[in-house]
């Protein structure tokens, strides 16, 4: 990691001027969102927007750290001087609120003292569900090419009609899973959840495959074949479909069913097959529970967020297929480019000096920020995989 130096963006030698930092400290990952003013700040506002008052042009940055390595996150904040901004300083009457930062997620409670002790800063806590919904609504309304469907390996961006956004089911797959019926800005109800989520995939996967990182486990799943471990309908029905109840011979009848075999041990299965089977089991299960909840409330749109998805094709495909299969094509699974940052964005939007309406996103601007010291380095702009090393060009206006 690089420390104790000014941050540079875009090949520009001017230091970033940070205004605003917000955190989502989850059970597995800490997500950071911060805004940096463009140096000079003399860019015109987007042509289709009326400048309400003095606007601030800049970029939203994203970064993430493992919660277990919270000290790396603290170091990142202090090395990059992310606490020095304290407001959109060129505006009049702005409050200088350097003494606190907005934070959400369970870690905002758990690590409150640590932030005070190490950075001398208080965490102003924002409700996690509130932040997830605010973040999702912001992305769906303000960011172009944010939501997409994924089926049979093909990604299709969805143009969201702002007047036809609600209601939808937001399914946030973090360590655990929250399912939230969203009816409007700030109007929502957490209708369900499951403890079988991203933490389960990573935890069981680590134990069963001895993988050292989440990405390694995902990578293994690419090469795996779940048929070595799952019992398929055809295994039970002598290679035949059970067409009377709509089950193909290739449908999984029992996840990990073959592992009951008396003459095989863990060592007899390939880690890649285990990973694939586990990923399918968990993604399928979440897809199915999501569909059942959508059915409960007559919701046609299910939007998936959370870092478990990780823009991973096979994960998205499995979830989308599960939703399609169980709803007989009635409900649609949608995914978000900034999937893992909903809570952090929601916390960012909760600063009083600006609201959802005054952050105008000009355009998506994938930018491998050389100062983003998040742990992932495998950002691939072609895949559009957002690892916390990207920023969005935007402007902030006073409401
Ligand atoms: N580099 C990584 N390290 C650990 N887990 C990762 C990583 N990348 C993706 N994941 C997955 O993302 C999940 C965490 O997602 P997310 O950050 O959205 O949730 P969280 O806020 O930590 O959890 P919760 O909301 O339940 O407290 C992990 O459980 C794991 O499945
Ligand atoms: C506890 C939270 C909300 C923490 O983010 C999340 O991990 C979760 O929604 N878990 C699922 C808990 C349940 O509803 O069974």
Automatic annotation (TrEMBL):
UniProt-listed GO biological process terms: coenzyme A biosynthetic process
Query: According to the UniProt entry, what is the EC number of this protein?
Result: 2.7.1.33
Q: In which pathway does it act?
A: Cofactor biosynthesis; coenzyme A biosynthesis; CoA from (R)-pantothenate: step 1/5
Highest rank taxon of the organism: Eukaryota
- What keywords tag this UniProt record? ATP-binding, Coenzyme A biosynthesis, Kinase, Nucleotide-binding, Transferase
A Gene Ontology cellular-component term: nucleus
Query: InterPro entries, from UniProt?
Result: ATPase_NBD (IPR043129), Type_II_PanK (IPR004567)
Catalytic activity line of the entry: (R)-pantothenate + ATP = (R)-4'-phosphopantothenate + ADP + H(+)
Query: Which molecular-function annotations from GO does this UniProt entry contain?
Result: ATP binding; pantothenate kinase activity
Q: What class of enzyme is it?
A: transferase
Supply the name of the protein: pantothenate kinase
Originating species: Populus alba x Populus x berolinensis
Organism lineage reads as: Eukaryota, Viridiplantae, Streptophyta, Embryophyta, Tracheophyta
